[in-house]
DNA sequence: CCTTCAATTTGAAACGTTTGCAGAACTCCT
DNA sequence: AGGAGTTCTGCAAACGTTTCAAATTGAAGG
């Protein structure tokens, strides 16, 4: 009867209709476990929940998961979220998910500079799609990334046109690949411009240490030659810049331009409104789901990759260079 | 060998350790499908992803899912997220999840006034825990809810002490139970106070129609006798009040006090900082996970219920009544 | 009316566990 | 040495599907 329900095989259409009707009548739903066991396909895609500190301010996870769900459901797949127990590494959770055969593929997010997960999945030949990418992969794999490099270049160009010459970049010490991609994009745009008067000051802070971050911002703001425009690696950093700037009496955007990345909800509310880039996480997640399902269906597929250009969200935190 | 790994039965501890070690050595992980098929327990808990409009501003889902994951992983369970396809009801997804035996229990959120889901699950005798509760359930069930009634009472008392006598409540037209609970909590506190000079003006707006919401706020602000304190059913509403108030030249908290509920990230950033209640969603979700696992383990358990008191987050959006 | 072939149906094996049971092996006591 | 436990080993059934192969049916051709 599975044949009839599936539709293919050589079954008379008439019979098929009859079977489907009967199944509906009886409220029959095939048992997932039995189906998985024999077919070898579970219809699940897994993701291991990132380990988070006690506070989670962004809506990233919610949007991402929503997008994945939307992408998966179109093909009848569902999502498994596996958390790591305290003291358990994300990698070991991933390994367990893969070995236990609960999922047909996984999506891995937050790619680090040296990421064991990708190496493992590749070696295991297990279908996966990465959200983000490695800097120097010596093997092909499926990924979708936001073009942070392009965005940061765009931010630079916009600010340069507004007369800014001294730039600040507030970045993190956590070894995620996106910080390099974005910083390199900024540097590349500067180089492209070829103006020797352009200067870039970089400050680094640990990602989750708010105190250290504030210190780093203030060091930058208090420097004898303060940048006239500061770009935050992501919105939370840019928002800290805005907060500290107004705390020390700088007016934004009159005295200082600030630009962020991510377009988190708070950026719209924080005065005077943070100019930032929107990466449309939900849509990206939906595409990731589709890529993954494609890879699962045809495992010999050429590796897919896709670079999504974020869109500039213009608010009021940037303006002409002071004194112009 | 399953016996040894499971641990119970009469197996010498020594043997057990040996088996576990060997399993680890070989990288053996039992196949989930086979295990589920024979044991009848999948080790999964499911939740159907709420259907969302295109924009998702809060971090609720992310926090909730993170909390669930944390609670589940302690007992070796994982989470399944099932999305609804376009045009498919949440109920039918739920039904499918239950019938297909992919999960041992489900958590259902966002309880509506007449919620078919609870009735279905109950009739089906399927383990579940609700986040939120019905207003007039004629049957017992497991739930965990945030005590919005208490919070709104607390908000009233605080504002009353500050001299406020004319209150505004901005609520939604969507038939969720929490709107009644919170509004009733406010009304109860007013009644408890027994001061006939206290007045309450209620404005209702559709949840997802920003334009209508803004209109409702402005009607309230433009009324001949404007409330001196407005409580938003949740933060987004309160933030709209703050935005519109400052747009029409009212200063917060000098001219108007505003209090919200949820403590979303933007509330800290929106000037002058929204006073609100924090429901610690993540922690609640963790408890929900634990409740659900308890119910799954012992299906004859007495229904569990828990009311969590939210904590007041004092910021700068409330103050003494104007003219005092 | 028998044969042949395709179209469709029916039967049986397999998926990888858990679990119940029977018996073997070992340990310890009397 | 015999018996009572205790622990271990091995076998077989069962879980609910999918899928392969064989059997049946029906129609067309001779």
Outline of this structure?
The structure is a homodimer of 324-residue chains. The first copy, chain A, is built from 12 helices and 12 strands. Chain A has helices spanning 2-6, 13-26, 32-39, 60-73, 90-99, 116-123, 148-161, 177-193, 210-222, 235-247, 265-269, 281-297; strands at 44-48, 78-82, 105-108, 128-131, 143-146, 166-172, 199-205, 229-232, 257-259, 276-278, 305-308, 311-313.
> What would you report as the Rg of chain A, rounded to the nearest angstrom?
24 Å
Low-pLDDT windows of residues of chain A: none
Most residues in contact: chain pair: A-B, 50 and 51 residues
Oligomer: homodimer
Q: Which structural class fits the helix and strand makeup of chain A?
A: alpha/beta
Strand order, sheet with most strands of chain A: 2-1-3-4-5-11
Principal-axis shape of chain A: elongated
The number of distinct helices of chain A, counting runs of at least 4 residues, comes to 12
Query: What does the main sheet of chain A amount to?
Result: 6 strands, parallel
Percentage of residues in strands of chain A? 15-25%
Mean pLDDT of chain A: 93
Helix content estimate of chain A: 40-55%
From the N-terminal CA to the C-terminal CA of chain A, the straight-line distance is 77 Å
């Amino acid at each position: 009867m599975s044949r009839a329900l599936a539709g293919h095989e050589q079954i008379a259409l008439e019979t098929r209709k009859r079977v489907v009707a009967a199944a509906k009548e009886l409220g029959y739903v095939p048992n997932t476990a039995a189906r998985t066991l024999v077919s070898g396909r579970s219809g699940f895609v897994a993701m291991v929940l990132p380990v988070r500190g006690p506070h989670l301010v962004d809506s990233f996870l919610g949007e991402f998961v929503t997008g994945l769900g939307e992408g998966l459901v179109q093909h009848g797949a569902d999502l498994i979220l596996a958390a790591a127990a305290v003291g358990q590494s994300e990698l070991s959770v991933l390994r367990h998910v893969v070995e236990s055969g609960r999922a047909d593929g996984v999506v891995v997010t937050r790619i680090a500079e040296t990421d064991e997960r990708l190496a493992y999945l590749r070696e295991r030949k297990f279908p996966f799609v990465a959200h983000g990418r490695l800097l120097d992969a010596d093997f092909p794999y499926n990924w979708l990334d936001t073009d942070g490099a392009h965005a940061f270049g765009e931010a630079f160009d916009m600010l340069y046109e507004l007369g800014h010459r001294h730039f600040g970049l507030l970045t993190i010490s956590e070894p995620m690949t996106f910080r390099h991609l974005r910083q390199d994009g900024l540097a590349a745009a500067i180089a492209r411009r070829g103006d020797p008067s352009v200067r870039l000051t970089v400050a680094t802070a640990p990602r989750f240490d708010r105190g250290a971050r504030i210190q780093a911002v203030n060091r930058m703001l208090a420097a004898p030659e303060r940048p006239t425009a500061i770009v935050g690696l992501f919105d939370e950093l840019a928002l800290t810049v805005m907060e500290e700037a107004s705390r020390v009496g700088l007016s934004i955007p009159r005295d200082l331009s600030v630009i962020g990345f991510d377009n988190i909800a708070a950026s719209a509310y924080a005065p005077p409104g943070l100019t930032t880039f929107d990466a449309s996480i939900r849509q990206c997640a939906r595409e990731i789901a589709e890529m993954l399902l494609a890879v699962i269906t045809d495992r010999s597929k050429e590796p897919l990759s896709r670079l999504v250009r974020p869109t500039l969200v213009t608010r009021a935190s940037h303006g002409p260079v002071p004194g112009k």
